[in-house]
Design a protein that fits this description.
Length: about 220
């Protein structure tokens, strides 16, 4: 794994103090038969299924795993399946709509927007970090499924711990259950025009550190 952070960099909690206790870790893999009922085209049903599981766990927030194989959930997205991009390249953090997000490190807002359509990111923010080196150059962090009435704009500097977004739902989440998708992106991935690839193929896994390194160390709570 590359050395992602400068030696004196301190990561601020992405959710501030809003996440209490330990998370429920979801199994969104095709090995879980419950995923056969998940349908991003039916937001309310999808939301009820995921949040019902969270409630039964007794936890107040949840995590979806990095590099998890998710072919069943992706079954209605032929482009992704045709490219065999079935491995989740980010970390999903499940929390309620309107939950604020705070910059983990000092950053410049690289891009904001809304990716339309069921199964897409909905509202998103991309931060560029000068003190994160991914494959030897500056890196980016990506946040999807956000409220699309953005509170930051391209070019704005945000300090570690500064609020920069809130979680969306429904149309703002691309139909996915309420959460944010956190992903680290290298300059090489940007150069290959893969910044919006939240899933990767088996062939990508051998090169994953050069494209989308693990975001786990970037997520403090």
């Amino acid at each position: 794994m590359p050395n992602l952070l400068s030696s004196d960099a301190l990561i601020a909690p992405l959710f501030g103090d809003s996440l209490k206790g330990e998370p429920h870790v979801f199994d969104f893999s095709s090995a879980n038969p419950a995923t056969l009922s998940y349908d991003p085209a039916n937001f309310q049903a999808f939301q009820s299924a995921v949040y019902g599981e969270l409630e039964r766990s007794g936890k107040t927030w949840g995590l979806g795993k990095y590099l998890e194989e998710r072919s069943t959930i992706l079954r209605n997205f032929p482009q992704i399946l045709s490219e065999e991009r079935i491995y989740h390249a980010g970390l999903d953090i499940t929390s309620l709509p309107g939950t604020p997000l705070f910059a983990p490190l000092d950053a410049v807002v690289f891009a904001t927007g809304k990716e339309e359509g069921i199964g897409n990111y909905g509202g998103f923010v991309i931060l560029k970090h000068e003190r994160v080196t991914l494959s030897g150059v500056e890196g980016y962090s990506f946040y999807g499924h956000l409220h699309s009435r953005h509170i930051v704009s391209e070019g704005k500097r945000v300090a570690a711990g500064e609020r920069f977004a809130v979680i969306g739902d429904g149309g703002d989440s691309g139909g996915w259950f309420t959460h944010t998708h956190l992903q680290l992106i290298t300059e090489e991935a940007r150069r290959r025009e893969r910044m919006f690839h939240g899933y990767v193929s088996k062939a990508d896994l051998s090169d994953i550190e050069q494209l989308f390194p693990s975001p786990v160390m970037f997520f403090q709570h």
